[in-house]
Structures are given as C-alpha cells and as structure tokens.
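Aim 2, interim progress. The first record below pairs a target sequence with its structure tokens.
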Amino acid sequence: MPHYLLTLTVQAHPAGATVVRVTGELDLHTAARMRRSTDRLPLAPGGVLVLDLSGLTFCDSVGVAELLHVYRTAVAAGATAAFAGATESLLSTARTTGLDQVLSFVAGVDDALPPQEQAGGSASSDG
C-alpha cells in the first residue's frame, strides 16, 4: 500500500492569527485528513486563518475542493481565510477556474495579516 504524505502543523502567529502549514500532497488520498484537521480549528468571528501552502508539493482537484471547504468554514465562523505561498501551478489552476476571485492568495504568511498586525499591533499613517 502506498504511503501518502500530508502534514499539517497548526501554530498561533504572534499577531493572533491561526497559521496552518501544509506540507506534502493534497489529493484524493489525503483530503480527508486535511478536512478532519481543519474542521477542528478554533475559528471565531473576526479571526484570521492562514494556510501556508509553501510546502505543498501537489494539489489535485480534490485538494482544491478542500481549500475551498476551508475558506467556506472560516467564513461561516465569521473569520477570514488567506492562502499563502501557493505554487505557480496552484495559482494557475486558481486563475483558470476562477478560484482566485474567491480565495485570497498572498505571497507569504505576513502578507495575510491586516496592516496593524504586521507592524506588531501598531498602525501608522503617513502625513
């Protein structure tokens, strides 16, 4: 029996966001593991969930559906969800399917945080 590798590591970001680092393959064989793990996340109104996809090596259509499920779960809880570090292949799929119009793809985890949280809790304005 083949071994399918997907690792999810949940961490609290210093700015208060929940960050889930996704490593390995997200596909038919690992999607249920992803759903079980992400459905247990403590999402609250106003919360921020960031999926760090920089370690994702493969994502098929079932995996894309799981990303959409994570987004919908966050929105239902009143939280926001962002997807950081996606590969060019995943971004291309998102553009082709229109998913880039629904999901928020950002370059890195810190790019998913509101500006005041990126700056350590203090917002500043020029001028």
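The second target in this work package is listed in the same format:
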Amino acid sequence: MTTNVPTDREEVARRRETIAELTRAGLSAAEIAVRLNITPRTVVRQRAAAGVSKPTYPRLTEEQIETARRLIDEGAPYKEVARTIGCCQSTVAQRFPGRGWTRKQIDEWRRERRLWAAAS
C-alpha cells in the first residue's frame, strides 16, 4: 500500500484536522484510511493526537426512544427493538438496562416455540 506521507507541519495539521472531521462525521478508521490513502493505524494515532478517540454517533431521537420503550414494554427483545428503530443492539441495552430478555428467557422461548411447532 502506497501512503501519503506529509512533508511539513502544516500538511500534518491539515490531515489531522481532516481525520478529526471525518471521525466526528461517524466514519470508521478503515473508511477514513481508504479515503485519505493512509493506514488505519495512522488514523488511530492522528485521532489520539487530535483528542478525538472514537467516532461519535447520533443520539436517539425522542421518537426513537418512545418507540423503543413501547416495544420493550410489549416484550420485544433488544435485537428486534434495535432493528426497528435503526440503531445497534448495544445502544438499546445501554439506554434500557435490565429490561431486555436474559439468555435463559431466550432459551425458554425457543424451546416453547419448538414445542408449538412440533405440536402443529
């Protein structure tokens, strides 16, 4: 892989700011690396130097939160709630801790579903 190595401090500062802006826009290190023709490790180092360690993701809207709350109250698992409102399962789990299904509940539900399917 041929990379772009900046030769002066101004170029380094410009690239660092570009990386910080792309990070704030939500791009991953790999996506930024491809765009700028540099390695993902360089992106990580430049993020750290700029004080931006990870991309920031948009917060959930009030509508998404209300929809998620309603679905969880109806008994939907985190995965289904996340798919419905368009975010990660971990985001839903962090926002509504202790309200999703446990592994044991999921296993019980699967067993019940299999029993119903076998009886039909």
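The radius of gyration is 22 Å. This observation will shape the mutagenesis plan for the next reporting period.
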